[in-house]
Design a protein that fits this description.
Length: 176
């Protein structure tokens, strides 16, 4: 990947994010508020427009479209990248390089899927008031599970840590 391509991709990501967030904030700021209690453990955009007594259908539609676009672009870019990495691994005869690429890609993919699923569940549950308690739990899990699993996912990639866990697991199995 060239420096020019990195700059183009970075500029595209920043500009798209800035545009979409500006639209989302604009849609939220226009609303008047008749409620003052945020029902989530933290404040996010969807929680803010739930404070309004006005019609928030436009906010919900834009939020869903924004989420689908963001998640789709993210997933497509990762698929393209991993397909290119797989193509290089297939054409390369270097076993060590292929093994390292597969380990790296698998851990990245595991962390990405954990983040993707927990974020998507939380975002989509905002649209269904009957699942308020599930949404609160999902929002807490979104901030705890992915960061909590990162050290485990990346740590298991390290041979020494993996061996130590296996040793501890085997000792516990023998004791029981």
């Amino acid at each position: 990947m060239t420096n020019k391509m990195v700059i183009k991709l970075s500029a595209f990501a920043w500009c798209l994010a800035f545009l979409l967030v500006t639209i989302m904030i604009g849609l939220t700021v226009r609303l008047s508020h008749c409620r003052y209690k945020i029902e989530n453990p933290f404040c996010d955009n969807a929680s803010l427009f739930k404070l309004s007594c006005e019609n928030v259908v436009i906010n919900n539609i834009f939020g869903i479209i924004y989420t689908v676009i963001a998640l789709s672009l993210s997933a497509v870019s990762i698929v393209i990248t991993y397909v290119k990495i797989a193509a290089v691994c297939i054409t390369s005869k270097n076993k060590a390089l292929n093994s390292k690429a597969i380990k790296t890609c698998s851990t990245h993919l595991a962390v990405y899927l954990i983040m993707f699923i927990s974020g998507a569940v939380f975002i989509f549950l905002h649209r269904f008031p009957e699942y308020s308690d599930s949404r609160k739990l999902a929002s807490i899990m979104f901030h705890i599970v992915p960061p909590g699993l990162n050290p485990l996912v990346y740590g298991l990639q390290t041979k020494e840590i993996r061996q130590k866990i296996v040793q501890l697991w085997c000792k516990k199995s023998l004791i029981l």
